[in-house]
Design brief:
Elements: H1 3-15, H2 21-28, E1 34-39, H3 45-59, E2 63-69, H4 76-89, E3 96-100, E4 103-107, E5 113-118, H5 122-126, E6 134-141, H6 149-159, E7 167-172, H7 181-184, E8 193-198, H8 205-208, H9 210-222, H10 224-230, E9 246-248, H11 253-257, E10 263-267, E11 275-283, E12 288-297, H12 302-311, E13 320-322, H13 327-335, E14 340-342, H14 349-358, E15 362-365, H15 371-379, H16 400-408, H17 410-413
Parallel strand pairs: 1-7, 1-8, 2-5, 2-6, 6-7, 9-15, 10-13, 12-15, 13-14
Antiparallel strand pairs: 3-4, 4-5, 10-11, 11-12
């Protein structure tokens, strides 16, 4: 074994939690540009990011790093201290000079800098100038505290320039509410972005101490939901989710080929509401619904949307169940070669079909194939009354693909006893 391999093995065993070994190799190989690291308390995601940033600067002497939190006042006692700790763990503490106004780490030999800044002073971020090289590495700590993806994108547009290679790390505990932008952001699939989730159970117990594990077990015994949210980093919601049984997972072409009957449904729309079309299959024995394809269309006529549906396999052999409110659209689709029929409606049918979906063992949605369907199902919540208490009322908004799924499965849930 070479000296480099020994050093790498020692680094992984001593500094990097086992759950991150593969991510570390990916970072060092620059297989992705963006690394989104989520997890619960004690998952080591922020520690890992700090370690990787310092290692990347060591390997790339023309790169500097920018570490951000939403508010500058929170930097010194949180992420700055985290980086000082990481430098010590790596045996690099003597290499980095600590400056405090503003917080910075400056490499004594190369002059490379790790800048710590708050996003609450955007003008200063835009005017950042390095004495040489460029800002090649960014780290957004507590990403969920930022105002949204647009804010992060605006900052990266200012920093990702002047160089050949870049790395961007984003770390946070998932907010409790699935509808929070940081949770919905995970549904956007990009080939240059790696998503990674971890929790304390993969961390060597000696790293966290016995008391940490004792506290986690105590909370699990007292409040399972709070334990899953705080320690496992799961967006459990606050009891308002309509579909707590949603599971986001990849669906392969082989899965689809083996599924048997495909159910298709359409909810009519034009603008501002879209036309929504979904394809799914249903495992009645396991009570698992899998949604594997979708169409979202704005400002398109019936001929155009019919062509989109035909491209997804719709035709005259299997029924596409549709919103009965637009008989002309149903007729148009039939005229364009699609066996389209109206899903039955009646008093209580919406509540019943939603209850049927929510009562399934699982609703599996492929977020890469069906990003809009995944967003709607994960964010859909019961309305609250004026007193803030939950009601049984369902919101009539942001539910177009949900409605398409209800219509698609109409021949199943309409059966007595189903």
């Amino acid at each position: 074994m070479t000296e480099t391999a020994v050093t790498e093995a020692a680094l992984l065993s001593r500094c990097v939690a086992p759950a991150f070994h593969g991510v570390h190799r990916d970072v060092m190989a620059h297989s992705h540009t963006h690394y989104v690291l989520t997890g619960g308390r004690g998952s080591c995601k922020s520690s890992f990011a700090a370690i990787e940033v310092l290692l990347l600067l060591k390997r790339n002497p023309l790169c500097h790093a920018l570490v951000l939190r939403k508010v500058a006042a929170t930097l010194r006692d949180s992420v700055f201290a985290q980086y000082v700790w990481a430098a010590g763990l790596l045996g690099m503490d003597a290499e980095w000079e600590q400056r405090h106004a503003p917080p910075e780490l400056v490499h004594r030999r190369t002059g490379q800098r790790v800048l710590f800044r708050g996003a609450d002073d955007r003008a200063k971020l835009k005017s950042l100038k390095m004495p040489f090289g460029y800002i090649g590495v960014t780290h957004f700590e507590e990403k969920d505290q930022f105002d949204g993806r647009a804010e992060l994108r605006s900052i990266l547009q200012s920093t990702m320039r002047g160089g050949d290679v870049f790395w961007n790390f984003e770390t946070n505990n998932p907010p409790a509410m699935p509808a929070h932008w940081a949770n919905r952001d995970l549904l956007d699939v990009r080939p240059d972005r790696l998503l990674h989730h971890s929790d304390y159970r993969s961390v060597p117990p000696a790293w966290l101490g016995e008391q940490f594990f004792a506290e986690a077990e105590a909370l699990r015994a007292l409040d399972e939901t709070a334990y899953r949210r705080e320690y496992l980093g799961i967006a459990t919601g606050l009891g308002a989710q309509v579909f707590p049984n949603v599971r986001l997972a990849a669906v392969t072409d082989a899965d689809i080929a083996a599924c048997g009957q495909v159910y298709r449904g359409v909810d009519w729309g034009f603008f501002p509401d879209p036309l929504a079309f979904v394809c799914a299959y249903y495992d009645a024995a396991r009570r698992v619904l899998t949604i594997f394809d979708e169409v979202t269309a704005y400002r398109k006529n019936n001929a155009e949307t019919a062509a989109l549906a035909r491209a997804k396999g719709a035709g005259m052999r299997e029924t596409v169940w549709a919103d009965a409110a637009e008989p002309k659209s149903i007729a148009d689709w039939r005229g364009h070669g699609i066996l389209c029929r109206a899903a039955g409606k009646g008093p209580g049918s919406v509540a019943y079909s939603v209850k049927w979906l929510a009562g399934l063992a699982a609703i599996v949605i492929d977020p890469a194939r069906c990003p809009d369907t995944a967003r709607e199902f994960t964010a859909y919540e019961y309305l609250r009354g004026r007193d803030g208490e939950l009601t049984e009322c369902l919101p009539d908004r942001d539910n177009h693909h949900i409605d398409a799924a209800r219509y698609a499965l109409y021949p199943v849930w309409r059966r007595r006893g189903q």
